[in-house]
Design goal:
Shape: globular
Radius of gyration: 19 Å
Number of strands: 11
Order of helices and strands: EHEHEEEEHHHHHEEHHEEHEHH
Number of helices: 12
Strand order of the largest sheet: 3-2-1-4-5-6
Strand content: 15-25%
Bound molecules: magnesium ion
Length: 307
């Protein structure tokens, strides 16, 4: 059976494109590997797939026992495809905080860069593997997405250099393509409040509290904030039905680099401590905040340790 390369649940562009890119690298090296996904393809990712004429990875509900799996763009089992606990984990390529105990030794490559695709791209070049134009385009799309076209504080020089090289291979104008792709993914279109509340969501544990943190990046936050009351209801339902203490939705303004953080649940003190603002309503405005990984999760983790 083929080895599977797969990103996290609720896949973003990095999880889809790094899975495709790493599967391409393994295949080029003679391994039988195939990219899969464990969630729906987002509008932004679909734009990139269509642009470079690549089919989405195969959807799988769960992995079979003993299935050889490479995890990309995540390392936490709660974020991974169902069945991962009994799969034969082969390796991890990621750029998030590590929260991991493995049953056996394996290949693990993590770097503090803005995107898994940056790591996957450089693996191609370090190993002298030629990259197809489409693969370069998809890896580029992942970097643009994860770094919000280099605006996120998670973005490094290595991400920028890698993106420039990928744009050349893919034959696209980096900034023009980047803006088009982000625009294609931004905006709520015909999404329901429940879909918005779950967009790009990830579960976390902060101290003894279970939280789900979603993010929707938009050009016009007013469009989402107009639905605030309905969103709060959807978030509260998520807490009730899925057992979370807290539900957070980051409404991130790509152009102005800020986030309106909607919150439902307890303890609100955690939010007040983490962000140094009163948390007695249902929303706080966080100027300069665009990154969940760097500007939301560490702050909540730290605040929870002191609560
Ligand atoms: Mg991701
Ligand atoms: Mg990523
Ligand atoms: Mg992301």
């Amino acid at each position: 059976m083929s080895k599977i390369v797969i990103g996290h649940k609720n896949p973003d562009t990095d999880s889809i494109c790094s899975a495709l890119g790493y599967a391409a690298l393994l295949s080029a090296k003679g391994e039988d590997a195939v990219a899969c996904r464990c969630g729906e393809v987002s509008k932004e990712t679909q734009y990139a797939l269509d642009y470079f004429k690549v089919a989405a990875p195969k959807f799988i509900e769960k992995v079979e026992e003993g299935q050889e799996v490479f995890m990309v763009d995540h390392n936490e089992f709660p974020q991974a495809v169902d069945g991962i606990e009994s799969a034969a984990l082969q390796g991890i390529i990621d750029h998030h905080k590590m929260d991991l105990h493995t049953a056996s030794p394996m290949f693990i490559h993590t770097e503090a860069v803005g995107c898994t695709a940056t790591i996957v791209s450089n693996m191609h070049w370090c190993q002298g593997v030629e990259m197809a134009k489409e693969t370069a385009g998809l890896l580029l799309s992942a970097i643009i997405s994860d770094t919000l076209l280099f605006k996120s504080p998670t973005c490094t020089e290595k991400d920028k250099k890698t993106a420039a090289k990928l744009a050349e291979i893919a034959g696209v104008d980096l900034n023009a393509y980047g803006m088009e792709m982000l625009k294609a993914g931004a905006g709520v279109g015909d999404m329901t409040p429940a879909e918005i509340a779950k967009n790009d969501s990830k579960p976390f544990t902060f101290g003894k509290y279970k939280a789900i943190v979603s993010q929707i990046s938009v050009m016009d936050p007013a469009e989402v904030m107009a639905l605030k009351d309905l969103l709060l209801v959807a978030m509260s339902n998520m807490c009730k039905h899925e057992g979370y203490d807290l539900s957070l939705v980051m409404v991130t303004d790509i152009m102005n680099e800020s986030t309106d953080l909607l919150y439902v649940g307890e303890p609100k003190q955690l939010l007040a401590d983490a962000f140094g603002k009163a948390a007695d309503g249902d929303c706080m405005h966080l100027p300069g905040v665009v990154s969940r990984k760097k500007q939301i999760v560490p702050q909540l983790t730290e605040a929870a340790a002191k609560l």
